[in-house]
Specification:
The protein is mostly helical and 242 residues long. It has seven helices and no strands. α5 runs antiparallel to α7. The longest helix is centred in the C-terminal third of the chain and has 60 residues. It is rod-shaped, with a radius of gyration of 28 Å. The relative contact order is 0.14. It is a multi-pass membrane protein.
Length: 242
């Protein structure tokens, strides 16, 4: 957040007429650059919203999964499938619970089919159902990720566009008004570079948050696969005893 204090925000507290403040940068900016600055701040607000929403979702999922897994596996080993499904329903914020409950529902359905056909394989449909369930959960986990990736890739270019527009304005002023005061010229160039700084300020956290969320997504998928493997092992054990 320290970048907020650089070129755009720096100097708000200084407030002097000759200071390189955010307010003066905004007043001096062309309409096009004001539009670009507004877009960058909107993108910043969006990524903050996505980051908070995603981290809260992952935290709730982890907390629910920690409580759910032991309860689910204990009831499964006792053969109390209804209690296992109730545990999944109770901890429905857990992504693992969503997948395992789906697998358990399919196993019970396949067991009914097996009563009519003893040679029916009840395990393979469960494995396919878990793969489908995991794929659906991955799509849920990707919520907002494409937006963050796009912001990380485009924000520097949007800022650079503002700088190019600002530099064109500087040269246009030089042509019509002459070189004039070198301090004023330096100030105009600095104001033009402010949009690039803002673009980088928006992009860098977006890339960082994107990578953090990608790692969390991988951890959730690994945990789902491990839990599903334990559940299928239990189904195979029961099938071998029946």
């Amino acid at each position: 957040m320290n970048l907020l204090a650089t070129p755009l925000m720096l100097g708000l507290a200084e407030g002097g007429h000759d200071s390189f403040s955010a307010a003066e940068i905004w007043r001096a900016a062309s309409i096009a650059n004001k539009f670009i600055i507004t877009v960058l701040f909107l993108l910043m607000a969006y990524q903050i919203y996505v980051a908070i929403e995603r981290f809260v979702t992952y935290a709730q999922s982890k907390q629910a999964s920690d409580k759910f897994l032991k309860l689910f596996m204990d009831t499964l080993r006792r053969g109390d499938f209804e209690a296992a499904k109730r545990a999944a329903t109770t901890h429905n914020k857990s992504h693992i619970a969503l997948v395992l409950k789906h697998g358990l529902d399919i196993f019970q359905y396949e067991k009914q089919l097996k009563t009519m056909n003893p040679n029916h394989d009840a395990i393979q449909p469960v494995e396919r159902a878990i793969q489908r369930g995991t794929a659906e959960v991955v799509e849920l986990l990707k919520k907002g990720m494409s937006g963050l990736g796009t912001i990380g890739a485009l924000a520097p270019f949007i800022g650079l566009l503002g700088t190019v527009i600002g530099i064109i304005k500087v040269f246009s002023d030089l042509k019509t008004k002459g070189a004039g005061d070198i301090n004023a010229l330096a100030g105009s160039i600095g104001e033009a570079l402010a949009t690039t700084a803002l673009g980088l300020f928006v992009a860098i956290p977006a890339v960082w948050i994107y990578n953090l969320l990608t790692n969390k997504q991988d951890v959730v998928v690994t945990n789902i696969n491990n839990a599903a493997s334990q559940m299928i092992d239990e189904f195979i054990r029961r099938e071998s005893q029946s």
